[in-house]
Amino acid sequence: MPGSRPVRWVAAVPMAALALATIYPLVFTTNVAMKTRREYVLDRFSPADSFSLDNVVKAWTSVGMSRYFLNSVVVVACSVALLLLFGSMAGFALGRLRFRGSSALFLGILAALFVPFQVIMVPLARTMADTGLIDTYPGLVLAYVAQFLPFTIFLLTTYYASVPSEIVDAARIDGNSVYGVYWRIMLPIGAPALLSVGVLNALFCWNDVLVALLMMPSAEHRTLMVGVTSLRGQYSDDIPTFAAGVLIAAVPVLVVYLFLQRQIADGVTAGSTKG
Q1: If we measure between CA atoms, which residue out of 188, 146, 191 comes closest to residue 167?
Q2: What range(s) does the ABC transmembrane type-1 domain occupy (predicted)?
Q3: In tens digits, what is the pLDDT along the chain, a chain of 275 residues?
């Protein structure tokens, strides 16, 4: 089309600037993590003299990042598994089944999306303390499930509602019960949406600091992000070690985006059209 090239440049320039602004912090953090303390003090912006992983090894072994990493993996894996299980069941029920009060229930779930966590933070902490779940893995997992379940149900309900009704009717004619339709038909069909929601919830749980700090006060049970936050105070005079901890926390997220970016995009748009 005539004049399309200038329009492309107008869109490309700000997008390129945004991409550079996003990539630069990662490059800067990686460069600092490769430096010695002396190199950082002399010139924090210059390239590292040698590509050394000594700070990363120190953060992983001596500082305890390996323990924090394992804590995060366990908590995130359990939280995402429960979120996908309960979210897919509720999404199937609200999206495909018709029962009394389903619309009101769905509106209540939508309303829960607008409640900030800070509003329920104190009641949640007191409830967890009364039930003995503070500073335990199940307590943090349940807190994440309670926080992110409305979001999960909303997306999966929207997706399952877009599935053609003929597929469900054919499955029922073949003799499948409601549970059979859910297990044999809807779960395989919903794989793109489940993958997308699972990745998003994993990132939410992985990057969380507030809930983990509230539910896991002891140093032994810290998650990775809480551990990285604590490094800033413990190693205020050793910024390369702190940067190495930040790099350890960022690498899993980058790997997920690198290998699952197409699946994430497909999952997000999978329920946008019918048929």
Answers
A1: 188
A2: 69-260
A3: 554 667 777 778 888 888 888 889 889 999 999 998 888 888 888 888 877 888 999 889 888 889 999 999 999 999 999 999 999 999 999 988 878 888 899 999 999 988 888 888 889 989 999 999 999 999 999 999 999 999 999 999 998 988 888 888 888 888 888 888 999 889 998 888 898 899 889 989 999 999 999 999 888 888 999 988 888 777 767 889 889 999 999 988 888 888 877 766 665 565 454 44
CA dist 108 and 101 (Å) reads 10
Residue matched to tokens 């599935």: 163
Q: Are 248 and 59 in contact (CB under 8 A)?
A: yes
Contact criterion met (CB below 8 Å) for 272 and 194: no
- The type of residue at 120 is I
Q: Kindly write down the DSSP assignment for every residue of 198-265, as one continuous string.
A: HHHHHHHHHH--HHHHHH--SGGG--HHHHHHHHHHHTTT-HHHHHHHHHHHHHHHHHHHHHHHHHHH
DSSP 157-195: HHHHHTS-HHHHHHHHHTT--HHHIIIIIIHHHTHHHHH
Alpha carbon distance 69, 4 (integer Å) = 48
Distance CA 51, CA 258 (A): 23
| HSE, side-chain direction, 13 A CA sphere, residue 224 | 27
User: What gap in Å lies between CA 59 and CA 109, rounded to an integer?
Assistant: 41
Backbone angles phi, psi at 36, to 5 degrees: -85, 165
Phi-psi region of 196 (alpha: psi -120 to 50; beta: other; left: phi over 0): alpha
